[in-house]
Design goal:
Blueprint: E1 2-4, E2 7-9, H1 11-34, H2 39-63, H3 75-99, H4 109-130, E3 140-144, H5 148-160, E4 165-170, H6 192-199, E5 203-206, H7 218-226, E6 230-233, H8 234-242, H9 252-257, H10 265-300, E7 306-312, E8 318-324, H11 349-356, H12 364-370, E9 374-376, H13 383-392, E10 405-407, H14 409-413, H15 420-436, H16 439-455
Parallel strand pairs: 3-4, 3-5, 5-6, 9-10
Antiparallel strand pairs: 1-2, 7-8
C-alpha cells in the first residue's frame, strides 16, 4: 500500500495506472515520430494529448471497476465492463485527436493510433484481471500470532484481496490456543526477525491474542523495522489494508495519539469551494433527469414529489434533507420510524429504479449548496436512530464531526444495510473517512460512486 494525502492505495493499482498512461503517450509519440516529425516537436503535443486522453481513460476504468480486485468477477462480467469502457473511450479518443487542432496528425494516423491505444489499454485490463499472475506486485505478509485475532486478520485480508500473499503465522511464545491450521504455522526455531528475512517478508502484522507477560518480542520487531520490514498493529492493519477503522481492535489512545482528524479552516474552505462548484455543475447536468424523475414520481402514485425529513448533521445539529419520494406517501402511517430494508414493500416501482440508480439522492445537491451537507461524507441518519446507535455502537458520534454527505466512503465500500450490525460495519468506513478525509479521497469516492451507479452494486 502507498499512502497519498492520508489515503492508502494499492501499489498494484498505481502500477496499472502508470502503465495505462505510459502506453497512450508512447503510442502517440511513436506514431508522430514515425511520420517524420522531429522528436522534440512531437513530444509536447503527444504528451498534452496523451495525458488528456489518459485522464479520461483513468476516469472510465475507475468508474467501470477495472482498478479493483477482480477475483469475484466472472470473465463475462469483465468483458461486459470492457465493452462499456470502449463505448465511452473510443469517441473520446477520436474527439481529442481528430477534432482538436494539432500539428502532428497526417492522414488521421495519430487519431487511429489513439483509438488503438485506448483499445489496448482496456484489453490489457481484461488480461490483468483474469490471465496475469494475480500475486505479482503484492506484499508478502507474515502474521505474528496464531490465535483467533490472527485468524481474523487473515480472513479480512483475503476478503479484501483473495490473492493476498500471507506467507504464514508465527505463534507468540505464550500463545496456547492455536486457531489457525497447523500447516500454515511458520517454524519458531528462529526468531521473528530471522524468519521474516528468510521468507522475504515485506510486512508483519502483530495480531497476538495476549500481549502481556513478555509475549511481544519488541527488540526483534524493532530489528525488523530497521531492516526495512513494515510492522503494523491490528488497528493500523485494518486502516491500511482495508481502509476502515476496526471497532473490535481500536482504542481511544490509538485514535488520540495517531495522526488524522484534521479539521482545519483551510481544509474546510477548500472543501466548501469544491462542494459549491461541483454540486452546481451536477445540478446543471442532471436537471433534465431530475425533471423526468419528478414527473415519473408524480404520475405513479399520489403524494408529494419530494420527501423532506429531519436528519442529524454537523456537530449533531438537525437539518431537513430533501430527496425524491421513493415510497408510498403513507410509508410510516403509524408514526413509528423504521429502517428501510432491501426489497422494502413500501417502495414504489419508480422508487425502486431511482433508488437503485441513486437518482432519488439528486435533490440533496440543494442541501449541499445551502451548506447543510457536503458532496462526500457520512450519510445523515434520523435522530431516533442516532440515539439508539450512539448507545449501542462505540464512537458513533465521531461521524458528526464533519458534514454529512450525498455519498460517502461507507456507501461505496459496503452493501446496503438496514440493521444495527450493518450500521456498525458502515461506521468503520465512516471513521476512516473522518480520520483521513482530503480532497483526494473525496474525488476517489465520487469516482467510485459512478462505478456503483453503473454496476448497480449495493442496490437498495
Amino acid at each position: 500500500m502507498v499512502r497519498i494525502f492520508n489515503h492508502y492505495l494499492r501499489r498494484r493499482t498505481i502500477m496499472q495506472i502508470g502503465f495505462d498512461v505510459g502506453l497512450i503517450v508512447a503510442v502517440l509519440l511513436l506514431v508522430a515520430v514515425g511520420q517524420g516529425v522531429a522528436t522534440l516537436q512531437a513530444l509536447p503535443v503527444a504528451a498534452s494529448h496523451g495525458l488528456s486522453l489518459a485522464g479520461f481513460i483513468f476516469l472510465i476504468n475507475s468508474a467501470t471497476g477495472f482498478y479493483q480486485p477482480a477475483a469475484k468477477r466472472s470473465l463475462t462480467e469483465t468483458c461486459a465492463r470492457a465493452l462499456v469502457a470502449l463505448l465511452l473511450a473510443l469517441p473520446i479518443a477520436y474527439a481529442l485527436t481528430a477534432l482538436l487542432p494539432n500539428s502532428l496528425d497526417q492522414g488521421g494516423a495519430v487519431t487511429a493510433a489513439a483509438m488503438l491505444a485506448v483499445s489496448a489499454v482496456v484489453l490489457h485490463r481484461v488480461y490483468a484481471s483474469h490471465v496475469a499472475n494475480p500475486s505479482q506486485g503484492r506484499s508478502k505478509i507474515l502474521v505474528l500470532g496464531a490465535g483467533a485475532t490472527a485468524q481474523g486478520v487473515a480472513a479480512s485480508l483475503r476478503a479484501a484481496d483473495p490473492h493476498a500473499q500471507i506467507v504464514g503465522f508465527y505463534a507468540g511464545s505464550n500463545e496456547t490456543e492455536i486457531a489457525v491450521p497447523q500447516e500454515q504455522l511458520v517454524s519458531a526455531e528462529q526468531g521473528i526477525s530471522d524468519t521474516a528475512l528468510r521468507l522475504g517478508v515485506d510486512e508483519i502484522v502483530v495480531a497476538l491474542t495476549d500481549r502481556r507477560g513478555g509475549n511481544m518480542p519488541m527488540r526483534e520487531l524493532l530489528d525488523c523495522k530497521v531492516y526495512g520490514i513494515r510492522v503494523l498493529d491490528v488497528a493500523t492493519h485494518f486502516e491500511k489494508n482495508l481502509q476502515q477503522i476496526s471497532l473490535a481492535h481500536v482504542n481511544p489512545g490509538w485514535l488520540i495519539f495517531g495522526d488524522g482528524f484534521n479539521q482545519g479552516a483551510f481544509r474546510s474552505a477548500i472543501k466548501r469551494v469544491f462542494d459549491v462548484v461541483f454540486s452546481g455543475l451536477l445540478l446543471l447536468l442532471t436537471a433534465p433527469l431530475m425533471v423526468l424523475a419528478a414527473l415519473a414520481v408524480k404520475l405513479e402514485s399520489r403524494g408529494p414529489v419530494f420527501y423532506r425529513q429531519e436528519r442529524v448533521g454537523l456537530n449533531g445539529a438537525p437539518f431537513f434533507v430533501t430527496k425524491f419520494r421513493s415510497m408510498r406517501a403513507d410509508a410510516e402511517r403509524d408514526g413509528k420510524p423504521r429502517w428501510a430494508t432491501k426489497n422494502d414493500d413500501r417502495v414504489t416501482r419508480v422508487g425502486k429504479f431511482i433508488r437503485r440508480t441513486r437518482i432519488d439522492e439528486l435533490p440533496q445537491l440543494f442541501n449541499v449548496l445551502g451548506g447543510s451537507m457536503s458532496l462526500v461524507g457520512p450519510r445523515p441518519e434520523r435522530q431516533y436512530f442516532v440515539e439508539e446507535l450512539i448507545e449501542k455502537i462505540p464512537y458513533f458520534a465521531v461521524r458528526h464531526s464533519v458534514k454529512p454527505g450525498v455519498t460517502g466512503w461507507a456507501q461505496v465500500r459496503y452493501e446496503y444495510g438496514s440493521t444495527v450490525e450493518d450500521a456498525a460495519a458502515k461506521l468503520q468506513y465512516d471513521l476512516y473517512y473522518v480520520k483521513n478525509h482530503s480532497l483526494f479521497l473525496d474525488l476517489h469516492v465520487l469516482i467510485e460512486t459512478v462505478a456503483v451507479v453503473l454496476t448497480g452494486r449495493g442496490a437498495r
